Amino acid sequence: MTDFARLDQEHVWHPFTQMRDWLRTKPLVIAEGRGSVLVDTEGREYLDANASIWTNLHGHRHPQINRTLREQLDRIAHSSALGLANEPASRLASRLVRAARLPSRRSRAAALQNPSLKWVFFSDDGSTAMEVALKLAYEFARRTRGIRRPRFLSLEGAYHGDTVGAVSLGHIDLFHRTYGGLLFRSDKVMAPYCYRCPFNRAKPERADAREYRQCHWECVDQVAHAVEDRSAKDAVYAGFVYEPLLQGAAGIIPQPPGWLRRVAEIARTAGTPLIADEVMTGFGRTGVGRWTAGRRGLPPLFASHHEGVQPDFLALAKGLTGGYLPMAATLTTQAVFDAFLGEYAEFRTFFHGHSFTANQLGAAAGLASLDLLESHAAAARRAQLEAWLGEELQCLWTLPHVGDIRQVGLVAGIELVRDWRTREPFDLREQAGIRVCQAMARRGVLTRPIGNVVPFLPPYCTTRAQLRRMVTAFADAMAEEVEHA
């Protein structure tokens, strides 16, 4: 065991990790990376099949981002945002507002009454971005609606981060029940999980469940009932919180086309603000939609925009800096901003902040990442990678313990089951997903399971040959750990 591995096992407490299991095995210590490849301290190479937990968009050691950071280091690394401004953060805020502008042609439903996003509050990570949105929406409801104790509505299986407020919006018992005594209560409605929806009358097929579902949009009705019940009590929700197009930590659960637009119309009609958690789905991760190479204009960078929806609060992190530095942003409207204006003695200020808010290095990396994203060549490259990913995944339908393969843009989730004909799941104690990912690591491919779901989120620089290696490693790992177990 290397010195670094020994030191890790003596002192480092890892997130979402049973440390007793961790201490029983030799840690894999990453030393360097380039593009889609990571290298450990013993010189072994691995493909980064989940973009280092969904953050690294353009690949490791991207020359343009590296150059930008070196240039920024020659100026300044950090100064406080409390009472001071700085150039990179100001420029990044302006660029984010511009990138988050919903093209009028995408606002397909007049009933949505989409707002404009104008103001940016910087923070450190996805949890804090959601915490900012939560606090702003809470106080906005109190100040403008006179609601004494505002409530929030979110989806079953929701995960929005690990701060106390963000956890209160979540509904994954395995993660959240331990902290029940610390949390405020939020309401939940069923998520549109087509593969396991109780209203889906279709029998299992060898295709994405969204393609052959048989239902009457009961999942949308559930949202409507919750909003109507709240309105009947002479109140509205302070916010409807959702991840657009797919729920990440819930198990890469994609929403059927049209779901987001329908529920957004319901919320807007009731006067309920929309809070979009795009920590994972933002910055092109959900694909290019109907955009094709050669078209004028660029595809949307944010998942909500694929359905013509503009939220009142947009939470961003992960890919914001291209996966280089911890930085996050919460975008909101002029109306929300105005609710916090007043004379000093009124104490209407938004009393919230972080030591590294608007950090110059993070902002510089964010600007470089946007430069890369906002080019026709990069959009065409993402479109090509999205198509390749879908094509490479098709061979996995022949595996009897693959229940569902679901892809949204450059995100894919493969759900492992005991029997695809019945959708019977593996017991989590069997660690099917963990064992498959460990076997993939032995074959030089790194990803991390979500229960029985194995996710693929390749960096945007991934080649077709590398994609094929990722998928082949999964198939071989399944044969070793599940098929022949």
Please provide a written account of the structure.
The protein has two domains: 3-61 and 378-483, Aspartate Aminotransferase, domain 1 (Alpha-Beta Complex), CATH 3.90.1150.10; 75-374, 3-Layer(aba) Sandwich (Aspartate Aminotransferase, domain 2). Helices cover 35% and strands 14% of the residues. It contains 16 helices and 17 strands. The strands form four sheets. The protein has a seven-stranded mixed beta sheet with strand order 4-12-11-10-7-5-6, sandwiched between helices. It has a four-stranded mixed beta sheet with strand order 1-2-3-16. A hairpin with a 2-residue loop joins strand 13 and strand 14 (411-419). The relative contact order is 0.16.
Identify the overall geometry.
globular
**CATH domain fold name of the largest domain:** Aspartate Aminotransferase, domain 2
Q: Got a strand count?
A: 17
CATH class category name of the largest domain = Alpha Beta
Strand order of the largest sheet: 4-12-11-10-7-5-6
Helix fraction, binned, reads 25-40%
Rg, Å, rounded: 22 Å
Going by helix content, strand content and strand pairing, the class is alpha/beta
Mean pLDDT: 95
State the separation between the terminal residues, measured CA to CA. 29 Å
